[in-house]
Specification:
Chain A: GO terms for molecular function: hexosyltransferase activity. Chain A: One of its GO terms (biological process) is carbohydrate derivative biosynthetic process. Chain A: This is Glycosyltransferase family 4 protein. Chain A: Keywords: Glycosyltransferase, Transferase. The structure holds two protein chains of two kinds. Chain A contains 16 helices and 15 strands. By secondary structure, chain A is an alpha/beta fold. Chain A starts with a strand and ends in a 5-residue tail after the last helix. Chain B is an all-alpha fold. Chain B has one domain (2-175). In chain B, helix 1 (2-56) runs antiparallel to helix 5 (113-145) and helix 2 (62-77) runs antiparallel to helix 3. The N and C termini of chain B lie far apart (66 Å). Classes of the chains: A alpha/beta, B mainly alpha. Chains A and B meet through strand 9 and helix 15 of A and helix 1 and helix 5 of B.
Chain lengths: 389, 180
């Protein structure tokens, strides 16, 4: 099958959607499919052979922050050329509502289009204003995928229609096989995420830390992620600061070893999550997980069966649960076991097969229609490429 | 005077273009429904075929075989108006027969059973998928067709009002071992 994937965010900036697309593309290539990914990237950044650059993304203020987007005449032309050269059986767009490559592709392409909705942003004012334009473009999508039941609900509320739920994928064995590192073991609490992004919840964890350390002075907090380290520990009494260790940005290998080593992984995120891939990674590595009770997290953790939940933003509840778990090796072993079994459904072998099922469902129907249309004129090729070529 | 006339012409042209664009949109949606319906038909047929194959294979006990055969046969032969009911009954029959994980295991152990069980798992997963895509397309077309401009100018032509395909497509628990 010839598959075209559209990534809305810069390939050179690390992010969940980009990693998802990279893993998905590589999974399909391993299965023998032909894959081409269209992504914004600077022309001089080295790209893997399957990625085609759509030009540099331009930073513009959008939806309350500065987003790097691709639009305008040149980008549209590149999208068109990519569609024309690719002759894809199916085009898979990620984040079709962001005013970037996804939307441009929706406009330019016809034929089987699959779209994945990653975020569950509340409807923005821009989206309300552009609703009818957006609707016309989104109508072309033959199959919608939401990454969680929560994301699907927001999608149904804001845009109408329906979607199938296919979670994000993780290479479970990569995490399960990682070698634990001794210096990260022994009463350690792990946290991965941007330090200076309050929604990742590090401040909540910092508030809970004095209580945890009062009862378990030997405990340590290991933090992996970018951001200002001094600002992060500001709220902590000076004598407790050495108990927090910053590792900075870690490589994929180190992340797996990190998750494999820690005695408890804490995800105190306060919002803005529609899936929670990090929880899946932690469970893959066999780390007992303690997470805030966001809708998306509760679903990934099987409503608390595969990992423990605490009331969102409640640092006392967090401290209490963390202490209970650190003092109960049996319960942690049980969580490890349940998590490792639960996480299999997020493995690429399952998720990739599901996504392929969607492609096959969509192309099966479209092929029949294209044959009927041939008698009247344009065939599948010109439908997917562009009529004017 | 001429200026007014030109403006009226421009306005009429703009309205005409907009209506023609809307008609194109509607046409595309109808084509999407046709494609989705064809895909749904293919998946339903595939599911009924696998079910019938299993029912006549002798792997299942006689009672289960009869129940499954009856439902699969009905789903394949039924008239279009009764289709939703017959397909729902096939879903129920599949759920009843494959309620226990052991039954799936027994099928897998039989010669050629691994492939049949795999095919059935895939079929019961794809039917809800295809149905959701179909009904999503139907919903989008209906929303557009209910709009004033479409009704007043009869942009939908003679295309029948699209109907959703409603059925019980809950897969058997033993075959649906995944997140959602």
């Amino acid at each position: 099958m010839r598959i075209g994937i559209v990534c809305p965010y810069s390939w050179d900036v690390p992010g969940g959607v980009q990693f998802h697309i990279r893993d998905l593309a590589e999974y399909f290539i391993r299965l023998g499919h032909e894959v081409s990914v269209l992504a914004p990237a600077d022309d001089d950044t080295p790209l893997p052979p399957y990625v085609v650059s759509a030009g540099r993304a331009v930073p513009v203020p959008y939806n309350g922050s500065v987003a790097r987007l691709n639009f305008g005449f040149l980008s549209a032309a590149r999208v068109r050329r990519w569609l024309h050269d690719g002759e894809f059986d199916v085009v898979h767009i990620h984040e079709p509502t962001s005013p970037s490559l996804g939307l441009l592709t929706c406009w330019a392409a016809s034929g089987p289009i699959v779209a994945t909705f990653h975020t569950s942003n509340p409807r923005s004012r821009a989206m309300i204003a552009a609703y009818s334009i957006l609707q016309a473009a989104l109508e072309k999508i033959s199959a919608r995928i939401a990454v969680s039941e929560y994301a699907r609900r927001t999608l149904v509320e804001h845009l109408g229609g329906d979607a199938v739920v296919i979670p994000n994928g993780v290479d479970v064995d990569f995490f399960a096989r990682a070698e634990p590192k001794e210096e990260w073991q022994g009463d350690t609490i792990g946290f991965i995420g941007r330090i200076d992004e309050p929604r990742k919840g590090l401040p909540v964890l910092m508030k809970a830390l004095p209580r945890i350390l009062a009862e378990r002075p030997q405990a340590r907090l290991l933090v992996a992620g970018r951001g200002d380290e001094e600002e992060a520990v500001e709220s902590l009494p000076a004598e407790l600061r050495p108990r927090v260790q910053f590792l900075g940005m870690v490589s994929d290998e180190d992340k797996a070893r990190f998750l494999r080593s820690v005695d408890l992984y804490v995800a105190p995120n306060t919002g803005g999550e529609s899936f929670g891939i990090i929880l899946v990674e932690a469970m893959s590595a066999g780390a007992p997980v303690l997470a805030s009770d966001l809708d998306a997290f509760a679903q990934v953790l099987d409503q608390g069966a595969a990992g423990e939940l605490f009331a969102n933003e409640d640092s006392d509840a967090l401290a209490e649960a963390a202490l209970r778990l650190l003092g109960d090796p049996e319960r942690r072993a049980e969580l490890r076991e349940r998590g490792s079994a639960h996480v299999r459904r997020f493995d690429w072998s399952t998720v990739g097969a599901d996504i392929l099922s969607v492609y096959e469902t969509v192309t099966a129907g479209a092929a029949a229609v294209a044959a009927a249309e041939d008698e009247r004129g344009p065939g599948l090729r010109s439908r997917l490429g562009l009529a004017r070529d | 005077m001429t200026a007014t006339l030109i403006w009226i012409l421009v306005a009429l042209l703009a309205i005409g273009l907009y209506l023609s664009w809307t008609a194109g949109r509607l046409d595309r949606l109808h084509a999407r429904i046709d494609a989705a319906r064809a895909a749904l038909d293919a998946q339903l047929l595939r599911r009924a075929s696998v079910a019938q194959e299993l029912a006549t294979s002798g792997v299942l006990d006689p009672a289960a075989s009869i129940v499954l055969y009856e439902a699969a046969h009905a789903a394949r032969q039924v008239e279009e108006e009764q289709r939703e009911v017959a397909e729902s009954e096939l879903s129920q029959a599949l759920r009843a027969v494959f309620a226990e994980a052991q039954q799936v295991e027994a099928v897998r152990e039989a010669p050629g059973g691994e492939a049949a069980a795999g095919e059935l798992t895939e079929a019961v997963r794809r039917v809800p998928m295809a149905r959701r895509f179909h009904n999503d397309a139907v919903g989008a077309a209906r929303r557009l067709r209910e709009h004033r401009k479409v009704r007043w100018f009869r942009l939908a032509g003679h295309a029948p009002f699209p109907m959703a395909f409603e059925m019980d497509d809950e897969p058997p628990a033993a075959l649906a071992d995944r997140a959602v």
